[in-house]
């Protein structure tokens, strides 16, 4: 009796693990509903990768919870502005996907000539797919209003291009 | 960054030097004697077709400057803004600190400074497309915004950084040109020249031709530019709602205009200009204070008529 119970229990556990793994795989493959970066749908796996990359490469300045540096609207003593939040309280969602990608890859000066910023260019540190994943993660945290606004900004930017 | 002081500018000297010339105790009244020219010219504005000039007092003309009425002000006015969607609403920044709003053309005022930093308010603006969105530049502090016509204020962004120092905006103008970030621009005149910030307040930046980056990337010849004289303060700025690419600026060298959003400027009036404003529906109709005298132009600054403030 006991042996049978053990077999049944083991089978049940194995099945549950398999189902969970399958669900997780499907979850990772699944696109985040309505979310795109540079015109391509975002997957849940990209968001997970982006979350990890953000923690490693961005959070030290922009905050573990995307909250930005303290008092970020006030200039630093070196004349530069602190790292802004990337959540809905900041202005990141006012910028198009292409601008966000360019700023991350090549620095702020790539979109505002002559502008001095403490943010480095991440080219050589993150590849294009990784930058895209970071942006996917950041965008996934925005409320609907900010997502919709930023989607329009991105669409207008694409139209101009 | 911390507050700092700097030499008083001509516009403030107008006020401080002549603040008591008229006084406001007997106001309002129709002005019959000539008003000392520099007592009311810190700022000028249009309220619809009415002309306004303000400093230590406020004067208003309903007949293109033929006659003027003096109106009371709670303190000397450093900045003044109106919006055609709200006729009779005057939004003013005060030398004593804080901002006030009049909803009856300047006859009475109420304080609208909740949450605003203390300090002289050198410049104010109303957003071109949002008449309840107010901006105020607090000296030594930064640019503040109110989304409810001054009911509540929050810091928008620190002061601009130009020539290795923070600079106080002396003038603000909401310019209805797209930033590419879902909004429009706020231009600022400073002691060190012109700058601008998108209304998402991401960063102050130089005025650049819209296709400057495209040319840079393509290796093409950069678009032509003719900036304002770099050695002069920009004391006043005006953007034409009827033609947002058209800007006017008041500098010690005179009145300047741009037809392309501030990339290429030309000199349209000689003399020390302390104030300029443009009619909300006619980008060629201007009022300016030049060499301490109020002047009107109906052709974008090519010709000027001196207004007798009497």
UniProtKB/TrEMBL annotation, chain A:
<dbReference type="InterPro" id="IPR008168">
    <property type="entry name" value="Cyt_C_IC"/>
</dbReference>
<protein>
    <recommendedName>
        <fullName>Cytochrome c domain-containing protein</fullName>
    </recommendedName>
</protein>
<keyword id="KW-0349">Heme</keyword>
<keyword id="KW-0479">Metal-binding</keyword>
<keyword id="KW-0408">Iron</keyword>
<dbReference type="InterPro" id="IPR009056">
    <property type="entry name" value="Cyt_c-like_dom"/>
</dbReference>
<dbReference type="GO" id="GO:0020037">
    <property type="term" value="F:heme binding"/>
</dbReference>
<dbReference type="GO" id="GO:0009055">
    <property type="term" value="F:electron transfer activity"/>
</dbReference>
<keyword id="KW-0732">Signal</keyword>
<dbReference type="InterPro" id="IPR051459">
    <property type="entry name" value="Cytochrome_c-type_DH"/>
</dbReference>
<feature type="domain" description="Cytochrome c">
    <location>
        <begin position="45"/>
        <end position="142"/>
    </location>
</feature>
<keyword id="KW-0679">Respiratory chain</keyword>
<dbReference type="Pfam" id="PF00034">
    <property type="entry name" value="Cytochrom_C"/>
</dbReference>
<feature type="signal peptide">
    <location>
        <begin position="1"/>
        <end position="20"/>
    </location>
</feature>
<dbReference type="GO" id="GO:0005506">
    <property type="term" value="F:iron ion binding"/>
</dbReference>
<keyword id="KW-0813">Transport</keyword>
<dbReference type="InterPro" id="IPR036909">
    <property type="entry name" value="Cyt_c-like_dom_sf"/>
</dbReference>
<keyword id="KW-0249">Electron transport</keyword>
From TrEMBL, chain B:
<dbReference type="InterPro" id="IPR052025">
    <property type="entry name" value="Xyloglucanase_GH74"/>
</dbReference>
<protein>
    <recommendedName>
        <fullName>Photosynthesis system II assembly factor Ycf48/Hcf136-like domain-containing protein</fullName>
    </recommendedName>
</protein>
<feature type="signal peptide">
    <location>
        <begin position="1"/>
        <end position="33"/>
    </location>
</feature>
<keyword id="KW-0732">Signal</keyword>
<dbReference type="InterPro" id="IPR006311">
    <property type="entry name" value="TAT_signal"/>
</dbReference>
<dbReference type="InterPro" id="IPR015943">
    <property type="entry name" value="WD40/YVTN_repeat-like_dom_sf"/>
</dbReference>
<dbReference type="GO" id="GO:0010411">
    <property type="term" value="P:xyloglucan metabolic process"/>
</dbReference>
